TrEMBL record:
This is ABC transporter ATP-binding protein. Keywords: ATP-binding, Nucleotide-binding, Transport. GO terms for biological process: carbohydrate transport. It comes from the Bacteria. Residues 4-232 form the ABC transporter domain. Belongs to the ABC transporter superfamily. GO terms for molecular function: ABC-type transporter activity; ATP binding; ATP hydrolysis activity. It comes from Psychromarinibacter sediminicola. One of its GO terms (cellular component) is ATP-binding cassette (ABC) transporter complex, substrate-binding subunit-containing. InterPro entries: AAA+_ATPase, ABC_transporter-like_ATP-bd, ABC_transporter-like_CS, ABC_transpr_MalK-like, ABC_transpr_MalK/UgpC-like, Mo/tungstate-bd_C_term_dom, NA-bd_OB-fold, OB_MalK-like.
């Protein structure tokens, strides 16, 4: 297995830069997710790790050895794509054996069968891919990627083609299998739940750049940037753009006190951290959406549209209803004009502290 290090990795095409100055260290056996919206450079990063794309600048190290000039097939990397890319005319067993075809592996057949057992397709070895369900094809693709005992397993949106129930079980399955093998794994996904449930650490990317590297809690509770704050969480954090003047931001009759920041800021308020109260920030209910355990309300305030979440058992709200919202200063996050979090900055509604 391998330790992986990316140093100032960059990939540019004629027209655009897909990955810009990416640096990242991944421990041996770690499960890392690269998370970001479509087009942010996730697959390009994976292709550079696999040796398919040559970096424009920067270096890649496996266990401390630079691999920029090592060919794809000598890197011993296993890849699983969203489109499982199985060979349609081969049986399951032949598909799993395929990566070993040029290697003198004396026990290739036994290894392929073991891998098939591990991913639970041991009963299906004689079938063709067309005779398998989507989930079974995904398992075969995984076995094929693992049969070479790769230093590194790369998964590019591997669950996107599966239905919701299957995705849930495959998430846990992939986690079990990679743990059992201790293989260093990098999962690429645009799905934040997939990333945060499966990975030890998440790398959040936007526009080819790393926005933040951290645990699920880091990204949710302590987003480094405005982008991460708006990307993580469903519904996402409310982001209010404003200017701090004389210790407050103002809009219409509303006033929110701000400490630790001056000038242009973005105030972040998570929907579950806003609470209805007797006094506070005035809001007019626009619409109410039941979401199972919780209810999401969209409301208009002087600072713009805000969403908040309440337990489904809270008193019902009517559209057009006038109400007030409170929040704790400790729950607030502020970002500066460069989009970076201002540590220590807080916002509060002082006049309604005893509402
Ligand atoms: P993601 O996997 O995060 O959706 P990609 O890494 O595939 O994003 O793409 C990142 C950016 O690089 C996109 O803007 C995409 O259009 C561009 N890109 C990807 N591959 C190529 C290519 N072969 N030639 C030119 N541009 C590319
Ligand atoms: Mg992609």
């Amino acid at each position: 297995m391998a330790r992986v290090e990316l140093r100032n990795l960059t990939k540019s095409w004629d027209a655009a830069t897909a990955v810009a100055d990416m640096s990242l260290s991944i421990a041996d056996g770690e499960f890392t997710a690269i998370l970001g919206p479509s087009g942010c450079g996730k697959s390009t990063t994976l292709f550079m790790l696999a040796g398919v794309y040559r970096p424009t600048a920067g270096d890649i190290f496996f266990d401390g050895a630079r691999v920029n000039d090592v060919e794809a097939r000598s890197r011993n990397v296993g890849i699983v794509f969203q489109s499982y890319a199985l060979y349609p005319n081969m049986s399951v067993l032949q598909n799993i054996l395929f990566p070993l075809r040029f290697q003198k592996v004396p026990d290739a057949d036994r290894r392929a069968r073991e891998m098939a057992e591990l991913v639970q397709v041991g009963e299906l070895l004689d079938r063709r891919p067309s005779q398998l369900s989507g989930g079974q094809q995904q398992r075969v693709a995984l076995a094929r990627a693992l049969v070479k005992r790769p230093n590194l397993l790369l998964l590019d949106e591997p669950l996107s083609n599966l239905d919701a129930t299957l995705r849930l079980s495959m998430r846990a399955e992939i986690r079990r299998i990679t743990r059992e093998l201790g293989v260093t794994t990098i999962l690429v996904t645009h799905d934040q739940i997939e990333a945060t449930t499966m990975a030890d650490r998440v790398v959040c990317m936007a526009n080819g750049r790393v926005e933040q590297v951290g645990t699920a809690d880091d990204l949710y509770l302590r987003p480094d940037t405005r982008f991460v704050a708006g990307f993580i969480g469903s519904p996402p954090m409310n982001l209010i753009e404003a200017t701090v003047h004389e210790g407050a931001i103002r809009a219409g009759a509303a006033r929110i006190a701000v400490t630790g920041a001056e000038g242009t800021v973005t105030l972040g308020l998570r929907p579950e951290m806003l609470h209805p109260a007797e006094r506070g920030l005035q809001a007019r209910v626009a619409h109410v959406e039941p979401m199972g355990r919780e209810r999401m309300t969209t409301a208009y305030t002087d600072f713009g549209t805000i969403r908040f979440i309440e337990p489904i058992a809270a008193p019902a709200r009517d559209e057009g209803e006038l109400m007030h919202l409170q929040f704790d200063a400790a729950d607030t996050i502020l970002f500066g004009p460069d989009g970076r979090r201002l540590p220590g900055a807080r916002a509060s509604l002082p006049e309604a502290a005893h509402a």
